[in-house]
Amino acid sequence: MSIKTTLAVAALGLALAAPSIAQKKYDPGATDTEIKIGQTMPYSGPASAYGTIGKLEAAYFKRINEQGGINGRKINFISYDDGYSPPKTVEMIRKLVEQDEVLFTINTLGTPSNTAIHKYMNSKKVPHLFLATGATKWNDPKNYPWTMGFNPSYQAEAKLYAVDILKNHPNAKIAILYQNDDYGKDYLKGFVDGLGDKAKSMIVAQATYEVTDPTVDSQIVTLKGSGADIFFNITTPKFAAQAIRKVADLGWKPLHYLNQVSASVGSVLTPAGLDKSQGLISMRYIKDPTDPRWASDATMKEYFEFMKKYYPDGDVNDASNTYAYAVSQLTVQLLKQCGDNLTRENVMKQAENIKNFQIPMAEPGVVANTSPTDHEPFQTMQLVTFKGKSWVGEGSPVAVKQ
Amino acid sequence: MEAATTTTTLAPLPSEKAATRALPFSRAQITGAAALLVIACALPFFLSNYRTFQASMVLIYAIALLGLNILTGFNGQISLGHGAFFAIGAYVTAILMDKFGVPYWVCLPLAGAVCLLAGFLFGLPALRLEGIYLALATFALGVALPQLLKYKHFEGWTGGVQGIVLIKPDPPFSSLFGLKLNPDRWFFFVTLFVTIVMFALAWNLLRGRVGRALVAIRDHPIAASTMGIDNALYKSLAFGVSAMYTGIAGALGGIAVAFVAPDSFTIFVSITLVVGMVIGGLASISGAFYGALFVQFVPNIADQISKAAPWAIYGTLMIVFMYVMPTGIAGALRLAWARLKRSRQDNTAA
Amino acid sequence: MEAFAHQVIAGLATGGIYASLALALVMIYNATHHVNFAQGELAMFATYLCWTMLNAGWSYWAAFFATLAIAFVLGAAIERIIVRPVESAPVLTVVVVFIGLLVILNSLAGWIYTYTIKSFPSPFPAAPPFGSHLVTSHELGAICVTLIVLLLIFLFFRYTPLGLAMRAASQNPDSSRLVGIRVGWMLALGWGMAAAIGATAGMMVAPIVFLDPNMMAGILLYAFAAALIGGIDNPGGAVLGGFLVGVLENLIGAYVIGTELKLTVALVLIVGVLIVRPAGLFGKVIVTRV
Question: Global pTM?
């Protein structure tokens, strides 16, 4: 360890041990009264459905500020529209880092958008935290020490399904529908890797679609025609609803695995038809707002009141919103851990120092854990099946090794 | 007394002095251009790196818009898919730089050449299509290209959905006349140089025989062919040259952002180019700059005004611009300048 | 063989979607000689208005016809207020105005209604026709509605004096004025009718693809292609074009090149058809004389 690092760690230890006597240390973006956090989010363009995440986070920080801020500092949350276009993301991130001088960024959304700024953020040594994408490449602390994901890795989730299939249905025939982009291919890779040698013999049909396609009906017809009895559905909410409904309408009854991205009861299963969604298998890590288990849950109640007061335009049942709520809660925890030492280096150290933190909006038992060698907060996932009106847990959360 | 001088339907005859000058510019125009050049060169040293990057993007859009204008403004062929050539230029450069280690300054003309060929080849069958049908064909090109880029059999070259990450070139010397250079500043100068060269070429092309032929084909294709202009050749060439310009702009764009991916080149890029060209001014070289400024900065302004519906603001601004300046910013400036000159003439005449 | 029939039928169903929007595009082209890129968004917005009414408790058909009326007024108003100032401007200026309109409507819908998909009811019975799994009653019903609209348009343009006046106004505004036709109002009427047709398309499409602000974006591309392949001034051609595009797309995706390139190949084929028949399959070839 270099002397500089030793001193930094020692200072950190001091800061953690005795916050009252800790020195205030600031990097650009932090002052006695303010912490600047940056973000790019697709408020326009093909992915604008996810814009609600940024809007909710802005409202969340507004509430925090009204309640006095964190350690006496208000949060100045600056979120720019990038239209899901990587060149725009680069431009906006440069603005955030070089002009607005934010301390760090959170929840920047989109795999291509984040790929475009991956090198830049690390070369500028700005914490690039809680990326809103499940791509596996964000967990690479050796080469990209300033980047940390949030969403459980798509590949890990797909492996979970693959393992489940190998265990319970080792001779099944599988059909896959996936979105023709980074997110879809990432899931596919994890699934194929998880099946190992049996992938070639088990996967009998694959079909893709573009986000500009009006429906996926034709693809479902093709997949049904392959005679598969397991269907792995890698689609975003709108297409997931279409797929679920078409599968039911065609009279096809495969074992239906649905990616977590589209597991929202309010925004996907209800439009598709709850009766058509029975038996769906997915993964869960954030509380679903329509789940009757949380009807009297303190966090959920707080969320509903928050939506009414601070974000009335938002859709209460949209799982993207509880997701954003969870991210905001983790960010607040991170800032609390930083205390008065608001350098970028300390922010990163604290981000790597989240130990068994139960985010209130996350499912109980799904805790966040990070370390300097592990930049993926979630280590466990739980398989769930849709029964009646909600997702029901199967067994206990499974550890997913990367 | 007023009536005789207010209706000037004929352009005034060029003065004797202008006809005998070496260059067809007035002294005022030359000093103006020189001043602009000095300001442009000084810019990166007064602006932050971020702003320099934005300035580079404006120049890049200007080259792309000039390319589109050659085809649509001067030659009347509507293209709703020029983003495809922008993408081809960017990808050719990215593949050459990433897989073959070709230095960036060699990539630029190579990307241009590839796009020249691609544009020409596309222009040939497009000869059969007119107006709205050509618009659809080009629109189809713009929509299909991202899908082609993602195609798994090309993944080895294009990087598939992941795209290709590039490294921004370092300046060859660390300072110029005592002023520090960094990759952003150096790249701005490279872009500025390319812009000047491309604009000079275009200006020369368009004021000569070729330019007149293109405009003739736009306005009266039948008359043009009876005059001996080979419509087919000129139209295909226009496509090729226009694609070359946009391709070089795309190459520069890819290096500026240091990343190319299919998501960077959706149909929205093509639409943005059309909007920029029209707002800047059809059939106008300076219009390319105004359009580039609009396309680069107005979405950011719209985002500042409203986070809830940023594009509603952007769309409104588009429409307002079109109301106030139906012939684009360049057209409006031309009208204003003509009106100013006329009123000055009236004043001196009276 | 069964799979093939299945694909063809599924293609006809999606083709019906393209056909309905293509009709609106043809309508507006016949009335104004402009292709309105905002047609899809207008249709989507009208569908949202219907959804609002349905949510407020109106019965389906009451909301349906009310939406048609509102869409008509909205279309005519947009023509008079937004398009009129640039009527005499170059074509591309008008195109930019349309693009602006498209973007505004899309953004407004996203803001007012959020991006969560909404299910939209169908007036047709839920049970599949003839117990078949190949197509739903709604898809069949939507195709019938499209054909009825086509018939109405055909009758309107062919046999009514108003239809004749509209065609005249778009083909030769100056002469029409001399004959006493109120060209301005003909244009507004054309827009109104196109908006109403678009609204019908939207309300038929929404139950299939789910209602969300980006619902029409992908459909517009195919509708555009369908309208052109059939000849931009020919409503029957547009409907045929729609079915053709739908079936072609499905068959290419299933049998020729796989779903990864089906969009590309479909478009290449469409452009190919246009190169062979530059005015579309059934369009009128305009001959310019010197």
Answer: 0.89
